[in-house]
Amino acid sequence: YMRSQFKTWTSLGILNITAVSEAGVPTYGTPILLPGTVSLTFDNDQTSDPFYADGEAYFTPAGASSYTGTLENALFSKEVLKEIYNYVEDKNGNLLETTDAPFEFGMQFACDSDDGDVYFTYYRVSSNKPGLNLQTSESSATINPQSVSLTASPVTLADGTTKVIKGFATKEASNYSTYFTAITLPEKKSV
């Protein structure tokens, strides 16, 4: 699917990664809906800088090694701040930002296309914590969404050799109706 075919997304959800095996295979927690999403971008961060040895290009990497992007949200919910960004709640119900790093998470969303919704998953995403962007009131309302930088990294499939960053499903996929109930790492199709 070409990016230009997509009109908008219909939902965005995140699932925190609760564990990662020594082989790099993540285990996911319970899905969390991320309401208020304003925009999401991911760009391939592919490097093609050659490694030189013996006076020549010895190795030139190819393929997608990661994606970087930005997520803008009207206001991150209390649940997302606690489950992903390591905030804690005090006895009065106040949220407190800890110095602990955010958890890695999987991210799923649906994009409306000419052929129906296409579902996407980024399997391993890391993020900085949301900042604060305030401005004085003016004669008209000004919305200042929160934004975070994202990095999507590869995960290793159960076969131990294949690494993937993202996947997508169209209505023909057998898991289309249950796609958003959990992130399940795919298994390669037998040839």
Please provide a written account of the structure.
The protein is built from one helix and 15 strands; from the N terminus they run E-E-E-E-E-E-E-H-E-E-E-E-E-E-E-E. By secondary structure, it is mainly beta. Strands 1, 2, 3, 4, 7, 10, 11, 12 and 15 form a nine-stranded antiparallel β-sheet that branches. The protein has a two-stranded antiparallel sheet with strand order 5-6. Strand 1 (6-20) and strand 2 (26-28) form a beta hairpin. It is globular, with a radius of gyration of 19 Å. The two termini are 23 Å apart.
SSE topology sketch:
Elements: E1 6-20, E2 26-28, E3 32-33, E4 37-44, E5 51-53, E6 56-59, E7 67-73, H1 78-83, E8 87-89, E9 95-97, E10 105-113, E11 116-127, E12 146-152, E13 155-156, E14 163-164, E15 166-169
Nutshell version of this structure?
With 191 residues, the protein is mainly beta. The chain contains one helix and 15 strands, in the order βββββββαββββββββ. Strands 1, 2, 3, 4, 7, 10, 11, 12 and 15 form a nine-stranded antiparallel sheet that branches. A two-stranded antiparallel sheet has the order 5-6.
Task: Fill in the keyword field for this structure.
single chain, mainly beta, 15 strands, 3% helix
What is the number of E strands? 15
Rg (C-alpha, Å): 19 Å
Total of helices: 1
Strand percentage, roughly?
35-45%
Instruction: Characterize the main sheet.
Output: 9 strands, antiparallel
Shape: globular
Alpha-beta content class = mainly beta
Helix content: under 10%
The helix/strand order is EEEEEEEHEEEEEEEE
Mean pLDDT: 80
